[in-house]
Amino acid sequence: MTPYRARLYRLIFAAAAAYNIAFGLWAALTPLSFFAFFDLAPPLYPSIWACLGMVIGLYGVGYGYAAARLERAGLFVAIGLLGKVLGPAGWILAVSRGEWPVRTLTLILFNDVIWWLPFSLFLLDGTRVAATLRRLAPVVCAAANLFGIVVMAAVLRFGTEIVTLPADRIAYITAHPVLWRAGWCVWIAAGVSLVAFYAWWGGFLEQPQWGLAAVVIAAVGLSCDFAGESILIAWLPRDYERLARAATLLSGASARLGRALALKRRPSRGKMRSSNPPASATLASTGTSRRQSDDHSSEITRSFAGPPG
């Protein structure tokens, strides 16, 4: 493992530790707030949820240890990844049985899905699979973002601001729930690929702290995006007027962070390592990057409607 990747994984595990401890404290100290937030009936025994919060917080302690001792982190990360796979599996069962509503997807995205890729890559580090994935990073990022733009144009735009009447947007979302949700899942995957691209790109910089900074900014933007798109996927068309606006604001924050990265001064070729990234990286980092252009959901729909007035 290179020093750059070691620093990157320490940063990721430290973030996972902070998130788990914060979530654990929230669930343990105010167990009913989760159910109020998702508009769920309060449980008869909220202490059970509080106990679950304590367990999640303990996972955070393990991730903190992993950040401090990478050479011994494998088991902690593997157990954490297994939990983050089993959690969504249990959620799918609960939703299919009508025990939980789909709108609780936001919880699964932040607790579990957002950590799948970095945890898996850490466990694979040093293998041929990991080397292949790093080599394909710019191509995958470009393809995922290009596909996201196509999906926006062909599927999602009919439920967005390009359609003048909110009633027509609601009717489209109601009539095509599978396409609507699958389309936004594609955009989530494109966002994850972009953060992965910045992580890959940083390994070629002579001053890798710029790569780490890019990853942090992009990850914050991705978090906003996850929140907004989880509303679009799991909450709409319920309470459309209020929630669609909130989703747009959250996604707009992601777009602005992406432009901050795009406008940040690029290092000169003299500051790049001799092992320059392949030419395909140019495509991933410019034309197809949805966070570094005006192709984000709230903005791409306006581009379809015409130039701003």
The run of helices and strands is HHHHHHHHHHHH
Number of helices: 12
- As for the number of domains, it is 2
Number of strands: 0
Provide the low-confidence segments as ranges. 267-271, 279-309
Strand count, sense and barrel status of the largest sheet are:
none
User: What percentage of residues falls in helices of 4 or more residues?
Assistant: over 70%
* Structure class: mainly alpha
Oligomeric category: single chain
User: How far apart, in Å, are the first and last alpha carbons?
Assistant: 52 Å
Strand content: under 5%
Radius of gyration: 20 Å
Mean pLDDT value: 81
The backbone outline, from C-alpha atoms, is globular
Question: Explain this structure to me?
Answer:
The chain has 309 residues and is mainly alpha-helical. It has helices at 3-29, 31-37, 46-68, 74-96, 105-124, 128-154, 166-175, 177-202, 209-234, 240-263, 280-285, 297-305. Helix 1 packs across helix 2, helix 1 (3-29) runs antiparallel to helix 5 and helix 8 runs antiparallel to helix 9. The longest helix is centred in the first third of the chain and has 27 residues, at 3-29.
